[in-house]
């Protein structure tokens, strides 16, 4: 169907599933074990309902925000996801171009299928790109990568900490696949990784992507190391409980991304929306100290608004942007953002908020029944 007939992110996913190659579909859609966490990430949002306020002026409604001080037209960003070329020959550059046109921020994966500089080349000069870091076990190699992206102009480092080994993704195991040369575009990275050669726990290419990463990271060692390598803001990606949120803040990072990797890592990790809810209840002062984000299962503007009410500064989306660029290239990415923008503004107006600062914890409540 033409983009004009696409109404929701769900519509885009349907098209993507019909058009993706079998290996792209396996890699993009898969999650761990029985995919309970994957499914619950999305379902968790349906346990939160609004206490909408009326009789508030919302003719003018501005959904823009700042993320780590950088402008974002709506309170969402692209969460870094690997191998965009599996879905479309232009790969990550589709997302870069779509983000430029719509004023949102893209986080680029360490395992991008274009080189970090090729992706930066696709950006316009005013555009903000963040970098998702998988830390190589060798500190020198890891530091080189951080310095490279710092020099290229990436504006923040999102250190992923929830993927020290790959989760058990059975669709990737049942359906082993290999990368063609044209699907990998970051030459230094791939030679470091040797990703097409290694077989890791039956996961083949998917497992090999993180096979050389540091499995001995600690708060005491790794955060000071990273601070010593770069002055860029540091965000920890993959916080899954409130205890670690507190430790991250004590370690002096600039932000935390509550995430379970889209259900691809630890099965039965809590949905990020539930972790956010607990954080709001038990550690409300954290929201004044660092920026808090969530990702996983976000599919609608109301999901975004629920997270913002509880104190998230912005939310990340992974698969929806992979699907959009696969099915429609850069215009698909633009369309996805336009859909989210419309849904966000509608929800803000109906809830009585004309700016994101008007969204308050009292505007959302958690029910103890699971709708539908
Ligand atoms: C990911 N994710 C991910 N995260 C990361 O830190 N580095 C990476 O290279 C990848 N790669 C990746 C590939 C694919 C195919 C997916 C689906 C996800 C996780 C990603 O950043 C994000 O946390 C989730 O995708 C969020 O969940 P949703 O939005 O996909 O439900």
TrEMBL record:
GO molecular function annotations of the record: heme binding; L-lactate dehydrogenase (cytochrome) activity; metal ion binding
Annotated EC: 1.1.2.3
Record-level GO BP terms: lactate metabolic process
This protein's UniProt keywords: Flavoprotein, FMN, Heme, Iron, Metal-binding, Mitochondrion, Oxidoreductase, Transit peptide, Transport
Catalytic EC class: oxidoreductase
Cofactor(s) needed for function: heme b; FMN
Subcellular localization: Mitochondrion intermembrane space
Keyword Nuclease applies: no
Domain named FMN hydroxy acid dehydrogenase: residues: 1-369
This protein's record includes keyword Transferase: no
GO CC annotations on file: mitochondrial intermembrane space
Main location: mitochondrion
Source superkingdom: Eukaryota
Catalytic activity, as annotated: (S)-lactate + 2 Fe(III)-[cytochrome c] = 2 Fe(II)-[cytochrome c] + pyruvate + 2 H(+)
Assembly information from the UniProt record: Homotetramer.
Family as reported in the entry's similarity comment: In the C-terminal section; belongs to the FMN-dependent alpha-hydroxy acid dehydrogenase family. Belongs to the cytochrome b5 family.
Entry protein name: L-lactate dehydrogenase (cytochrome)
Organism: Leucocoprinus leucothites
Portion of the full sequence shown: 109 to 480 of 485
């Amino acid at each position: 169907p033409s983009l004009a007939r696409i109404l929701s992110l769900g519509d885009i996913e349907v098209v993507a599933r019909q058009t993706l190659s079998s290996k792209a579909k396996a890699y993009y859609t898969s999650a761990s074990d029985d995919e309970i966490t994957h499914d619950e990430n999305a379902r968790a949002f349906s346990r939160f309902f609004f206490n909408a306020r009326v009789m508030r002026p919302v003719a003018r409604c501005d959904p823009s925000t700042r993320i780590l001080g950088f402008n974002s037209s709506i309170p969402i960003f692209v969460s870094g996801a690997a191998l965009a070329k599996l879905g479309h020959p232009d790969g990550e550059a589709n997302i870069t171009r779509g983000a430029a046109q719509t004023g949102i921020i893209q986080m680029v994966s360490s395992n991008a299928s274009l080189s970090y500089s090729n992706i930066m080349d696709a950006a316009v000069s005013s555009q903000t790109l963040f970098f998702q870091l998988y830390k190589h076990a060798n500190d020198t190699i890891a530091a080189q990568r951080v310095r490279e992206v710092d020099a290229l102009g990436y504006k923040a480092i999102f250190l992923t900490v929830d993927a020290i080994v790959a989760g058990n993704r059975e669709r990737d195991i049942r359906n082993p696949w290999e990368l063609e040369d044209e699907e990998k575009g970051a030459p230094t990275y791939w030679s470091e990784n040797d990703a097409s050669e290694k077989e890791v726990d039956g996961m083949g290419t998917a497992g090999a992507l993180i096979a050389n990463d540091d499995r001995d990271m600690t708060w005491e060692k790794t955060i000071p190391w990273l601070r010593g390598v770069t002055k860029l803001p540091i965000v920890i990606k993959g916080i899954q409980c409130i205890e670690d949120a507190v430790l991250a803040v004590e370690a002096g990072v600039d932000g935390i991304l509550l995430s379970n990797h889209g259900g691809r890592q630890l099965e039965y990790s809590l949905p990020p929306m539930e972790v956010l809810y607990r954080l709001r209840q038990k550690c409300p002062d954290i929201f004044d100290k660092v920026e808090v984000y969530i990702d996983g299962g976000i599919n609608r503007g109301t999901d975004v608004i629920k997270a913002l009410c509880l104190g998230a500064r912005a939310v990340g989306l992974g698969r929806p942007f992979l699907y959009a660029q696969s099915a429609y290239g850069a215009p698909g990415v633009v369309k996805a953002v336009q859909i989210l923008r419309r849904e966000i503004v509608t929800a803000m107006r109906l809830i009585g908020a004309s700016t994101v600062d008007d969204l308050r914890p009292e505007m959302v409540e958690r029910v103890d029944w699971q709708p539908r």
